[in-house]
Write a structure and sequence with these properties.
Length: 210
C-alpha cells in the first residue's frame, strides 16, 4: 500500500488556518484523496485533555514544553503514523514547528532542547509540506477579537493573552524555521483576501499533488 502524505498548517491565531484548512479538505475531497484532519495540541483523548490544561492552566515554560511534546507523541503514535501507514493523507492544524515558534521563540526554551524532544517524540514522522500562514500581530489581534465577538465569546486562552512582544518572537521563530526547512515550509502572506490566498494555495497544491 502506498504511504500517505502529511500536510501541516502553521501560523498565529487569526492567520486564517481554519478557513484554509476547510478549503484544503475540499480540494483533496474533489480529487478523491482519502484523508484525516487533526490538530495540535490534541488529536487523541489524552492529548485533548492535555490541550485543555495547556490553554487554561498557569504553568512554567518547561512544563508547557514537556506537555506539548507528550501530547504530540500520543498524536503521532495513535493518529498520524497509523493513518499514513494505511495510505491516508493527514492534515494537521499545527505540528512540531509550533513548538519551535511558541516554546522556543515565544518562551525562550533552548532550540537544542526542542530538537532533542522532537527527535525523541516525533522520530522520523515529519510533514511533507507545511503551509505557514503569516500575518502581522496587528492583523492577528483584529481578526481574533472579531471572530470571538462573532461567535459570542471574547474569552482568550493563556497564549492569546500574551503581549505583542511574545507574538513578534513567535513570528520571527516561524520565519527562521521556514528559512531552514529547505522548501518544506511555504510562507503564505495571509494578510490578503481569502480569494487571493486560495489562488496561491491551489497553485501550491497542484504542484504538490502532481
Amino acid at each position: 500500500m502506498k504511504q500517505g502524505r502529511f500536510i501541516s498548517l502553521e501560523g498565529m491565531d487569526g492567520a486564517g488556518k481554519s478557513t484554509h484548512l476547510a478549503w484544503l479538505a475540499d480540494y483533496l475531497r474533489a480529487r478523491a484523496v482519502d484523508f484525516v484532519v487533526t490538530r495540535e495540541p490534541g488529536g487523541t483523548p489524552l492529548a485533548e485533555t492535555l490541550r485543555e490544561l495547556l490553554l487554561q492552566q498557569d504553568m512554567t515554560a518547561e512544563t508547557e514544553t514537556l506537555l506539548m511534546f507528550a501530547a504530540r507523541r500520543e498524536h503521532v503514535a495513535k493518529v498520524i503514523e497509523p493513518a499514513l501507514q494505511r495510505g491516508q493523507w493527514v492534515i494537521s492544524d499545527r505540528f512540531a514547528d509550533a513548538s519551535f515558534a511558541y516554546q522556543g521563540g515565544g518562551r525562550g526554551i533552548p532550540m537544542s532542547l526542542l530538537q532533542e524532544l522532537e527527535a525523541f517524540t516525533v522520530k522520523t514522522c515529519q510533514p511533507d509540506l507545511t503551509l505557514l500562514f503569516d500575518v502581522p500581530w496587528e492583523v492577528s489581534r483584529q481578526r481574533l477579537h472579531a471572530g470571538r465577538q462573532q461567535n459570542g465569546t471574547v474569552q482568550l486562552d493563556r497564549f492569546e493573552l500574551e503581549a505583542q512582544s511574545f507574538f513578534e518572537r513567535v513570528r520571527a521563530a516561524y520565519h527562521a524555521r521556514a528559512q531552514a526547512s529547505q522548501g518544506r515550509m511555504q510562507v503564505i502572506d495571509a494578510a490578503r483576501g481569502v480569494d487571493e490566498i486560495q489562488q496561491d494555495l491551489r497553485a501550491l497544491m497542484d504542484g504538490f499533488c502532481a
